[in-house]
Specification:
The protein is of the alpha+beta class. Helices cover 37% and strands 20% of the residues. Helix 13 packs across helix 14 and helix 16 packs across helix 18. The protein is globular. The two termini are 43 Å apart. The structure holds flavin-adenine dinucleotide.
């Protein structure tokens, strides 16, 4: 559907010009996290004129901060949310097919310490009563995983669960705590670049239908019954006249409604932090699998290999101001303690934490004392302001975004008097389109792209892993552009795995407005723990060249990116290099 022969999508300038000439759209989506982005693509596919806006970049809120599991939600069996587990396992299986470039099977091990532990508290939780489970025994885990396999039977592509007992348990995990008696192994999935897949949904939507428009970095300023008003970062105002408003603002939903003139109390968010830790001993023992384990305080934590390091998560703490949510030192220490509990003999210090991130779950408002008891299911809540229906998208999981988008799109289509034309269940996303699924197809793709990469097969493999099949367009761009006769296939000084032409491609064709958009979302540079001052400076120069930034602009982009890296992600940076920030025009 979004092949290169379709007309190019509207650029930012064209979008602003179109809205200036005619502010009417059928649907306005406020908030471009995964819920907004999924809906945007779905409505665009049905040919609906739709505008999506975000005050930050696309996919920069909670959707950039998950545990990165595309999962059925084993723990939701405990809270009796069977419908959610059934939907989540089905959506997991669909995403493995539709986004194979970024969603991969994840072998998961669950340690248990006893045969009978956890039975009574599990029954209590299933009955929606508060109960702490600090030991999920073999029997209760076996029951849960049998149910999990049953729910995950539709479109299954991964094996069923298995159980390992006795000495074998510690053979591959010699440093795991000695009192673990059994390991259950089952399969879920993980998404390597959630931020990128979120962006690809926006891109697919824009390419699908000329009436589908997307603007990042714009601020909602008000609504008067006729129009909804916005301002861009240069202070330029513009208005939109929608028929339906969808509030996909995640943890900001009530704040957005207030700006529209509506008082609501839909959201009771909890923040969750994650760490990317440089822990080679643990990473090697994990051998590609995740360990999903209970902690002595009754919570569940996870650890799995992620881009050469390990990813550890997550906390679950009430949060009222999503703009201030960062993973603080207490959360970092809590998660490191959880890792020490599982691997008591491995030394692990705060200095090994290369990156941290935090996001606020847009959960429904609840009086539950234990945030873990609040439902992770989704809901559409309708309010009205002036003559507009305002649909707020509450809750939801990354995993289930497509199903949620389908429900909301169907609701909106009825209001617009239209019918669904395209089913998204089997539709590939972004670089997952035409993905080479068997060895022969992969070989053919790699051979073609290797040629574009001056014969460098390793480079073709990297492009396929990073961009999926869109990697071919990246390779073509790198092969084509040369500056002063110098090919832009050369590696960056600060990041040898990236090429100059690649950064140029992302800046020109992927709706980049700021340096931070590239470092933190379009590319997994920060996430892989590779961010340092040299990277920021070199990327600023390349982005500036592609986007025509002045020296002053480049300097302020560097300052902003450094601030985000240090304040929000706990990255230690050497002092700024003043020569790269000179105020030249
Ligand atoms: C710690 C944590 C771990 C999680 N782990 C998983 C997991 O492993 N698997 C899984 O399936 N799910 C997971 N989730 C759940 C999932 O990530 C979220 O439910 C989902 O990302 C919510 O998406 P959203 O689009 O509703 O919200 P968001 O992604 O927060 O998007 C809301 C958007 O609205 C924008 N916005 C706010 N105010 C305005 C305004 N005034 N004008 C315009 N735009 C505005 C924000 O900038 C933001 O981009 C996790 C969530 C968290 C926080």
């Amino acid at each position: 559907m979004t092949d290169t022969s379709s007309p190019p999508p509207l650029t930012r300038q064209q979008t602003l010009a179109r809205l200036g000439a005619d502010p009417s759209v059928s649907v306005l989506i406020i908030g471009a996290g995964i819920n907004g982005a999924g809906l945007f693509r779905d409505l665009a596919l049905q040919g609906v004129d739709v505008l999506i806006v975000d005050k930050q970049d696309f996919c920069a809120g909670a959707s950039a901060a998950p545990s990165r599991l595309i999962h059925g939600g084993l723990k939701y069996l405990e809270t009796g949310e069977l419908r959610l587990v059934a939907q989540s396992t089905r959506e997991r299986n669909l995403l493995l097919r539709n986004a194979p470039h970024v969603v991969h099977p994840l072998r998961t091990a669950m340690p248990t310490h006893s045969w009978f532990g956890g039975i009574w508290p599990s029954i209590q939780r299933f009955l929606q009563r508060p109960a702490k489970i600090d030991d999920r025994g073999i029997l209760i885990s076996e029951l849960g995983l049998t149910l999990y396999d049953f729910f995950g039977r539709h479109f299954r592509s991964m094996p069923r669960h298995s159980l390992t007992l006795g000495r074998k348990v510690h053979q591959s995990l010699p440093d795991m705590r000695g009192d673990v008696r059994a390991l259950h192994t089952y399969y879920d999935a993980a998404i390597s670049q959630a931020e990128r897949l979120g962006y690809e949904l926006i891109d697919d939507g824009c390419r699908t239908h000329r009436g589908a428009m997307a603007l990042n970095h714009v601020t909602l300023t008000g609504a008067d019954g006729e129009v909804v008003s916005f301002e861009d970062e240069e202070g330029n105002a513009f208005t939109v006249r929608p028929q339906v408003i969808v509030n996909a603002g995640g943890a900001w939903i009530d704040e957005i409604n207030r700006t529209l003139g509506l008082e609501t109390r839909h959201i009771g968010g909890t923040k969750g932090g994650h760490l990317i830790v440089d822990a080679p001993v643990i990473r090697d023992q994990l051998d590609g699998r995740m360990i999903y384990f209970g902690t002595p305080d009754g919570r569940i934590c996870l650890i799995y290999p992620f881009m050469d390091h390990v990813l550890v998560g997550a906390t679950d703490i009430r949060c009222t101001d999503p703009d201030q949510a960062v993973c603080d030192d207490d959360e970092r220490d809590y998660m490191l303690e959880a890792v020490r509990y599982l691997f008591p003999d491995v030394t692990i210090d705060p200095e090994q934490v290369r990156y941290r991130y935090s996001g606020v779950r847009p959960l429904p408002r609840s009086e539950a004392l234990d945030p873990g008891q609040i439902s992770r299911d989704h809901a559409i809540v309708e309010d009205r302001i002036h003559d507009w229906p305002v649909l707020s998208l509450i809750g939801g999981k990354w995993t289930t975004f497509r199903g949620f988008a389908e429900e909301v799109a169907d609701n909106v289509l009825v209001r617009l008097g239209r019918r669904r034309e395209i089913d998204t269940r089997q539709l590939a996303i972004g670089g997952g389109r035409d993905y080479p699924r068997d060895a022969a197809a992969r070989e053919a793709w790699l051979a073609r792209v290797t040629e574009l990469c001056d014969g460098d097969r390793g480079r073709a493999i990297t492009l396929l892993a990073r961009y999926g099949t869109r990697g071919e367009a990246v390779a073509r761009h790198c092969a084509r552009i040369a500056v002063d006769g110098i090919s832009r296939q050369c590696p960056l000084d600060s990041l040898v795995d990236y090429r100059e032409g690649e950064i140029d491609f992302v800046c020109r064709f992927e709706r980049v407005e700021h340096l931070a958009d590239v470092l933190f979302r379009r590319l997994p540079i920060a996430l892989s723990g590779e961010l340092d001052s040299a990277v920021i400076d070199e990327l600023a120069t390349l982005c500036g060249a592609a986007l025509g930034w002045s020296g002053a602009r480049r300097g302020s982009e560097i300052d902003q990116a450094r601030d985000v890296a240090m304040r929000a992600h706990g990255v230690s940076l050497t002092p700024a290099d003043s020569s790269s920030q000179e105020n030249s025009p």
